[in-house]
Amino acid sequence: MHTLSVYFREARAQVLATWRTPQFLIPSVALPLLFYGVMGLGLSKGREEVAHFMLANYVIFAAIAPAMFGFGAAVAAEREAKLIELKQIAPLPAGGYLIGRLAAALALVAASVGLLGVLAWFGGVKMEPWRWAATLGLGLASAIPFALIGLNVGLRFGSQGATAIANLLFLGFSLFGGLWMPLNMMPDWFTRIAKVMPSYHLGQLSQMLSGMQPMADVQQHVSILLVISIAALVGAGAAWRRQAA
């Protein structure tokens, strides 16, 4: 019970610190809402199917920024400031710092995804309750593989390099994952790149859960996401051990 209490306190501290940083909080939550309001609702011109399709993509998009910058740039900055070393010698259970960081990222993603759902509902998107829950829930869960990738960036690069790489990954996952525009509107080579992007596979699953696509190749999408997540977890574990060495 004492260990769980320590984990909870660390997670609470990380969440509060994140919510008290408006320069990170506002873009992470507001950017997906702004994009969806303009591209999902504004450009749809009242067509519910377009707003519906874009919602399924933007709940995945909403998870990328908190994961890339909360686990990428922020971890790199704290590592350079020796704050991670301080955490490692403090009486904190193994992984407490990372769990706290993940909790902060999930809190941001939950706020962004929840507000996207409210905006889409007022915009006329109609789904059965279980589809709303599944679509928004997948958006929240998608923060985990992105966070593991971001953690690798934060533990392997300096703050400036991590920020640059996090920006490149943020744009790459969004564009090549087909979250901003359908891949059938893009050249064929876009689709080949998309197949290795976690955002593409999460977007496809989101389209299925929201009812915009028939259920197909689910096992393939899930398997690729598991491989990407496990590889990122192994890489992050190795990088974290080097920090403690």
Task: Give a structural overview.
By secondary structure, the protein is mainly α. The two termini are 29 Å apart. Helix content is 80%, strand content 0%. The radius of gyration is 18 Å and the shape is globular. The protein has eleven helices and no strands. Helix 3 (48-80) runs parallel beside helix 6. The chain has helices at residues 2-19, 22-42, 48-80, 83-89, 96-122, 129-141, 143-156, 159-176, 188-194, 198-209, 218-244.
Strand portion? under 5%
Subunit organisation of the chains: single chain
Mean pLDDT: 84
- The number of strands is 0
Q: Could you estimate the helical fraction of the residues in percent?
A: over 70%
Radius of gyration: 18 Å
Biggest beta-sheet profile: none
User: SS-based structural class?
Assistant: mainly alpha
Shape: globular
Low-pLDDT segments, ≥5 res: none
Distance between the termini: 29 Å
